[in-house]
Design brief:
Helix content is 38%, strand content 16%. The two termini are 30 Å apart. It folds into two domains: 3-68 and 320-430, Alpha-Beta Complex (Aspartate Aminotransferase, domain 1), CATH 3.90.1150; 70-316, Aspartate Aminotransferase, domain 2, CATH 3.40.640.10. Helix 3 (91-103) runs parallel beside helix 10 (303-316) and helix 11 (321-342) runs parallel beside helix 14 (413-431). The protein has a seven-stranded mixed β-sheet, sandwiched between helices. It has helices spanning 4-15, 70-81, 91-103, 116-131, 171-174, 185-195, 218-231, 250-255, 281-284, 303-316, 321-342, 372-376, 380-392, 413-431, and strands spanning 37-41, 44-47, 52-55, 109-113, 135-139, 152-153, 163-164, 177-180, 199-204, 234-238, 261-264, 275-279, 347-352, 355-360, 395-396, 405-406. The chain is an alpha/beta fold and 432 residues long. The structure holds pyridoxal-5'-phosphate. Pyridoxal-5'-phosphate is lined by residues 60, 115-117, 120, 143-145, 205, 209-210, 238, 240-241, 265-266, 275.
């Protein structure tokens, strides 16, 4: 007899490609059937049979205040009462823009979009328009959404032009994208030595959250900043995942680096569909209507998302908010690590602010992964066993060994202890 989730997945596949509206949700990486969610509250999400799961996905980051936070929901309800969308300016857009520029000093002007993909795609067009150059540089293991220029991997040699990673991406687009190994300052220097005066921009996840969680070295960031400045290339930090998440000022505050442009994502709208890109006035003024780089969006800056974001930022800016989040992450990681050690499981982890990542390395001597090759070298089967063991015990992790985990302010001590207890039980089974 099939389970409820299996039935729902079958029904979904009838009219939705693969049964999902974004591929990772299909559980292809971990196997099995996705859990269909029908509601969420605080630290928990509930499936259609009302089984509760302690959620460490948080809609892939934005639910930093927990699900259905009363203040955010109230703001959205009030916004809905006032009308869903006007296609005209609202004061709420100005409030959010002011807030972002106040919190992130590298951002002097900011434009709203409806997704992270739109934000990165627009930032790249802007960098190309501003510099009058075509080539862009990205890094292996970083994900920046699904626009054509970014669905590209390295060619056969490290400094060769890129090859599409998706059908439908013209090779003519991919040839302008150079993909370098992450966290490798020498590769950046070699790349600029070869292509320096042709590079429009470098786009980077300043802390990678799409190859699990990898925190690069300060030297990597210092080199990037120095090389971009020296060669007149725009440095774009993609903080769609790390923005307002690893700390109030994002990864750029952590590393003390001022990027030229920054992309933000769904957290700005507390989980409603939003993205944004912003940065130096001189560059941002090049977009329409002040400049010749075209960028637009009928629903951009929509009042529901803006008012949800305004409500959320009130809590994020309270003193100590991120310290509390980080101490929950510390407690959880320490507890899970102790359980892994007890059972002889080779676990490594990374963490900063409200974000964390776990790696199952193959050998007890292996260090925490530093780049995509090392992440790929981890024991993916062990992660998948861990994932399903946790899910059976009511803990919802991202369904892929290549994703990070997220803490919310609503995760309670009981949630953290239940998670550690579940991990202990799963590790005990894995060790047998
Ligand atoms: N950039 C990063 C770092 C992301 O993690 C993502 C999505 O997860 C994106 C861009 C694309 O954002 P969206 O899915 O909202 O288009």
């Amino acid at each position: 007899m099939s389970t409820k989730n299996e039935q729902l997945f079958l029904q979904a596949k009838k009219h939705i490609p693969g049964g999902v509206n974004s591929p990772v949700r299909a559980f292809a990486g971990v196997g099995g059937t996705p859990v269909f969610i029908h509601k969420a509250s605080g630290s928990k999400i509930y499936d259609t049979e009302d089984n509760a799961y302690i959620d460490y996905v948080g809609s892939w980051g934005p639910m930093i205040l927990g699900h259905a936070h009363p203040k955010v929901i109230e703001a959205v309800k009030q916004a809905a009462d006032d009308g869903l969308s006007f296609g005209a300016p609202t004061p709420f857009e100005t409030t959010i823009a002011d807030k972002i520029c106040e919190i992130v000093p590298s951002v002097e002007l900011v434009r709203m979009t409806n997704s992270g993909t739109e934000a990165t795609m627009s930032a790249i067009r802007l960098a190309r328009g501003y510099t009058g150059r075509d080539k862009i540089v990205k890094f292996e293991g970083c994900y920046h959404g699904h626009s054509d220029s970014l669905l590209v991997k390295a060619g056969s040699g490290m400094l060769d032009i890129g090859e599409p990673t998706s059908k439908g991406v013209p090779a003519d687009f991919a040839k302008h994208t150079i993909t370098l190994p992450y966290n490798n300052p020498d590769a950046i220097k070699e790349c600029f030595a070869k292509w320096g005066n042709e590079i429009a921009c470098v786009i980077v996840e300043p802390i990678a959250g799409n190859m699990n969680m990898v925190i690069p070295t300060q030297e990597f960031h210092d080199t990037l900043r120095q090389q971009c400045s020296e060669h007149g290339a725009v440095l774009i930090f993609d903080e769609v995942m790390t923005g307002f998440r690893v700390g109030l000022g994002g990864a750029q505050a952590h590393f003390g680096i001022e990027p030229d442009l920054t992309c933000f994502g769904k957290i700005i709208g507390a989980g409603l569909p939003v993205g944004a890109f912003g940065g130096k006035r001189e560059i941002m003024q090049c977009i329409a209507p002040t400049g010749g780089v075209y960028q637009a969006g009928t629903l951009s800056g929509n009042p529901l998302a803006m008012r949800a974001g305004i409500a959320m930022f009130e809590d994020l800016t309270v003193d100590g908010f991120y310290d509390e989040l980080a101490s929950k992450v510390d407690y959880l990681i320490d507890g899970i690590q102790a359980a892994a050690d007890k059972h002889g499981i080779h676990l490594r982890s990374n963490k900063l602010g409200g974000m964390m990542g776990f790696f199952f390395v193959k050998d007890g001597d292996t260090a925490t992964p530093q780049n995509f090759d090392e992440v790929s070298d981890c024991d993916i089967d062990a992660f998948n066993t861990f994932f399903h063991g946790m899910l059976e015990r009511g803990i919802y992790l991202a369904p892929s060994a290549y994703e990070a985990a997220f803490m919310s302010s609503k995760h309670s001590q009981a949630d953290l202890d239940a998670t550690i207890k579940a991990a202990d039980a799963v590790f005990a089974q894995m060790a047998q």
